[in-house]
Amino acid sequence: MYSFILILLVSLINLTLSSHSNPGHLKPFGTVGSLINIEEINGEYPNILKFFTYYLPKSEPILSRQVLINDQYYNIWKTDEQLENEVEGLSKANIYVESMTQRQRTQMKFAEFFDKYQKEHLFFADNIPEILR
């Protein structure tokens, strides 16, 4: 009987000590918050030299917010119409598309793909056209 009480007491002490050394131990997932400090970069791309010398070798995470808002090409990709109108010659480019229902690959102009892909469940199944590279 005494050995049972001793084992129970040691287990309780061990459980109490381990929960203090690990702040998220035995708590619901996500309630403790971030256990590491993650640097945030707002509105700009990270400095390439700093990224490759500091973050990448140490596998250090960074959080970039609102980076693409200031990018000159971001607005072109917001809607299909903007992409089609801003990139000269894109509408006439030949591409291969595939139907999700028929699994058949066909060739069509990019303008035709823009008109059909949401209605007919088509997806782009080709290399990126030179005009977009």
Walk me through this protein's architecture.
Residues 1-18 form the signal peptide. Keywords: Signal. By secondary structure, this protein is of the alpha+beta class. Among the domains are: 34-68, no CATH class; 75-132, no CATH class. The protein contains 4 helices and 5 strands. It has helices at residues 2-21, 48-58, 80-86, 110-116; strands spanning 39-42, 62-65, 94-99, 105-109, 122-124. The strands form 2 sheets. A 3-stranded antiparallel beta sheet has the order 4-3-5. Strands 1-2 form a two-stranded parallel sheet. Strand 1, helix 2 (48-58) and strand 2 (62-65) form a beta-alpha-beta unit. It is elongated, with a radius of gyration of 27 Å.
Mean pLDDT: 80
Number of strands: 5
Report the sheet-strand fraction: 15-25%
Morphology call: elongated
| Model regions low in confidence, pLDDT < 50 over at least 5 residues | none
Give the N-to-C terminal Cα separation: 77 Å
Please outline the major beta sheet: 3 strands, antiparallel
Structural class: alpha+beta
Radius of gyration: 27 Å
In DSSP terms, counting alpha (H) and pi (I) runs of 4 or more, how many helices? 4
How much helix, percentage-wise, in residues?
A: 25-40%
Signal peptide: 1-18
Keywords: Signal
SSE topology sketch:
Layout: H1 2-21, E1 39-42, H2 48-58, E2 62-65, H3 80-86, E3 94-99, E4 105-109, H4 110-116, E5 122-124
Parallel strand pairs: 1-2
Antiparallel strand pairs: 3-4, 3-5
